[in-house]
Amino acid sequence: MGARSSNPLEAAGPTREPIKIGVLHSLTGTMSISEISVKDATLLAVEEINAAGGVLGRPLEAVIEDGASDLQTFAQKAKQLLLEAQVAVVFGCWTSASRKAVLPAFEHGNGLLFYPVQYEGLEQCPNIFYTGAAPNQQIVPGVNYLLAQGKRKIFLLGSDYLFPRTANRIVKAQLAALGGELAGEVYLPLGSREVGEAIAHILAVKPDAILNTLNGDSNVAFFQKLREVGLKPEDLPVMSVSVAEEEVRAIGPSNIAGHWVVWNYFQTVDTPENRKFVKAYKARYGENRVTDDPIAAAYLGVYLWKQAVEKAGSTDVVKVRAAAKNIEFAAPSGKVKIDAQTQHIWKTVRIGKVRSDGQIEEIWNSGAPVPPDPFLKTYPWAAALAPRPISLGTRASLSGLFVILVLITWMAVGVGWMGSVEMKNYLLTIKAASTPAGVSEAAMAVLVQQTLAVASRTQHWLLGASVLSLIAGIVAFVSVSAIIRNLGLLRETAELMASGDFTARSPVVSNDAIGVLSSTLNTMAQQISSLLNGLEVRQRQLEERSEELEVAKNAAEAANRAKSTFLANMTHELRTPLNAIIGYSELLQEEALELGEEEFVMDLASINMAGKQLLNIISDILDISKIEAGKMTLFLETFEVWDLIEQVVTTVQPTLGKNGNTLIVNCDRNIGTIYADSGKLGQALLNLASNAAKFTDQGKITINVWKEEGEVLPIDNSAELWADPSRCQQPLIVFQVTDTGIGMTEDQVSRLFGAFAQADDSTTRKYGGTGLGLTISRRFCQMMGGDITVESEFGCGSSFTIRLPIAVKNPKEAREDPEIQEIQAESSQELDTSAAATEAKQKELRSQPLDLPDAATVLVIDDDPDARDLMTRCLSKQGFRVRSSASGQGGLLLAKELLPDAIILDVMMPSMDGWAVLSALKADQDLVDIPVIMITFLDDQNQGLELGAAEYVRKPVDYKRFAALLSKYQGIEK
């Protein structure tokens, strides 16, 4: 139930039972911007009438209901007013849709509605008095004015409901008949403020003027946007039919000043009745309030009903309707009269220009009240708008012609038949007179004379029939010629339209069936032309949008390249000093131990650990960037699963000791090998184990590894599996990391694998971390055809499980051939032949094994002096002779001079990078057999091995292990 209020106002004199009247308007919602003021005007009239003694000596009691800008609510409230409140009349509604919604209630309950707003016409209901304008009192003269001002190309903009669409049907028919052009037609949802697309359409088609049938809040957004894009009234005037003084206040006078409106009333109308009305309205509701056409129409509607009731002496609906015929009233807009036939009002038409103070200055009027013509019967071009039977003129011209020809034919036949019968009788008498009995000559003469008279009379009748036939023939010729001529013009127009000329128009010379057909054809051509223009506009907009998107795409790609370059440069610039920090801290730890300065060892170890942590963060950021850009690659190789587990356990041991955790490993030492990316799998396992150690205190962490048969996901975890599920079955290696730590809630688990996400903010604050580790680990597993799953119970611990195929398919090969070969568990060590072939190919491309002599000469090529110094100091301790170069060009020259036993080569160097140096080394016959070890921050092992590198080592370098790598080849027999 909506809000209901009663406003009983007692008349002077003895108190009598009040007459209840309903007031039904939108007091909330998008239409409240207009309807609240109309409600106020209705109540002002009620107060004045009650102050003057009421109606039939009884005061009026207003029962107010809120339609809430909703059609169902309007229908419901109308029923309540008629059936529950039992009001004598209802004053209300604004939109045609709301009027149509309440109409069944008034027809069924024999109620009476005074409707105060202009509307689209083509309606006449005995239960409604239309005090707003009919189409010929607003829309039609408004369009005529635009055409008279030379505005031939009209754009139609309206709200998407009944009134604007029907009104624009009228406008399109009018433009087609009067030589105007439909520039475009756009409808917005009622109350919508999304006007940008409509403005873009208007700018594209460049109309001469806009006919605006927007309602509600849409007008505010439209005129504000129109001003923002620089469209001024003198360049593109807007003729509005639903914007009056009240709406101008909401829109803002500065946004709409200079544009046109067409109504029957303005607040500036200079009549005694209007001055009195405006004064009373402002006194009642405030000096800042304004009056407008619907306000004035609502006000006069109450007075017209009062006069009809007093004339009828009753509030009975039937009696009031009969008494209301031809009632006149001196309204604020001038003299008005209820039309006896249509129950519409005779009104003066006014066109005005909005002033900067919010008032409207009249620039044209019709001079006298215009009789309402809701069905536009006086306009031949409107014949097709309302469904109607074939006109009487058409029926007479066709049916009458047929009847006349039939009558003339039967008359000629009848006259000839009667004449022949009489002549036969007279001839038989003459024949009988020649018998012996005979007759006198006088009698014979009489018979002959009568025969001749019959013949003469027959001739006259036949002559008359001939004259009538001639007249009918002329009439038929004229009628048929007119029909043929009109049909010919219609045919010519249709042929022109069929050839693509939608500017052709068929003349509308009458409102008969052919006139209706011509008008319909013209409107259809106008509509098709507008639609084609709209399609062209949309096409241009799409092309422009495509160009913008292409530019944006190129810019995004450029930005992505710039981001990748920036990240690569940034990480290089950050990693280089971090590499030095880590390396020097390790070297200093050794020297401190050698010198007996053990108190510095822990400090140096802390520096080393902090450097590695920062380096890991930088690596994570670069990894997630490469993953998102689709540039992360796999380096697939065959390796022992147990060896990888041992490496992870060794690496994670320091973290385990911090929180006093115990590590248990359940893995068969003979579990075998896996063909995968050992670096990425190791990174994923290390991340899971490190997280388990970090989030567990004095607990147990278990690493379980086993084989199982399972379903392998497509590479990159695409949404669809291959058509035959059996082709996606092969042995899996399962790695499971379980802890007895803090655990997680379901909500935390749902957000766990998001980038930069941890269980929650408190977890991040307490335990630290970037939240990238799990995201990167999962993406790595998905790239290898597997995935990570998690099970967790809050307060009890978590279990993370990695499932990977025993032979990972290269992503490129997987896209080319989605069939995964089945590998039986018992032969798991005999891996997929493609994997073995790939690995063999890589071995062929590598340099010769690092068979180094004792006291081998090693050439270090690196642009970073700290890296060269660290490498020199560490390798020298192991007995190597070390020479170094700071550039690629210098390194090549030094290599040709020294012919070293091994070359250590950095990738990222200015001028000539490591790839170019490696290619040059392998292209030189003197240097091709020298083993080259690539050391870099880049994760591009495949490229290094393909270009012929012997080993590929990621920075930061563990110099002890690196020296051991070289040392183990010393002394090998050649």
Description:
The protein has 974 residues and is an alpha/beta fold. It is 50% helix and 16% strand. It has 28 helices and 28 strands. It has a 7-stranded mixed sheet, sandwiched between helices. A 6-stranded mixed sheet has the order 1-3-2-4-5-6, with helices on both faces. Strand 2 (19-25), helix 1 and strand 3 (60-66) form a beta-alpha-beta unit. Helix 5 (162-178) packs across helix 15, helix 14 (441-498) runs parallel beside helix 15 and helix 15 crosses helix 24 (865-877). The longest helix is centred in the middle third of the chain and has 83 residues, at 513-595. The N and C termini lie far apart (101 Å). The model is unreliable at 1-13, 715-728 and 814-850 (pLDDT under 50).
Short description:
This protein is an alpha/beta fold and 974 residues long. Helix 2 runs parallel beside helix 3 (96-109), helix 5 (162-178) packs across helix 15 and helix 18 (678-694) runs antiparallel to helix 21 (773-783).
End-to-end C-alpha gap: 101 Å
The total strand number stands at 28
What share of residues are in beta strands? 15-25%
Instruction: Give the overall shape, derived from the CA principal axes.
Output: elongated
Q: Could you name the ranges where pLDDT drops below 50 across 5 or more consecutive residues? A: 1-13, 715-728, 814-850
Reported for the largest beta sheet, the result is: 7 strands, mixed
- Helix coverage percent: 40-55%
| Strand line-up of the largest beta sheet | 8-7-9-10-11-15-16
Average pLDDT works out at: 81
Radius of gyration: 49 Å
Q: Helices and strands: which structural class?
A: alpha/beta
Number of helices: 28
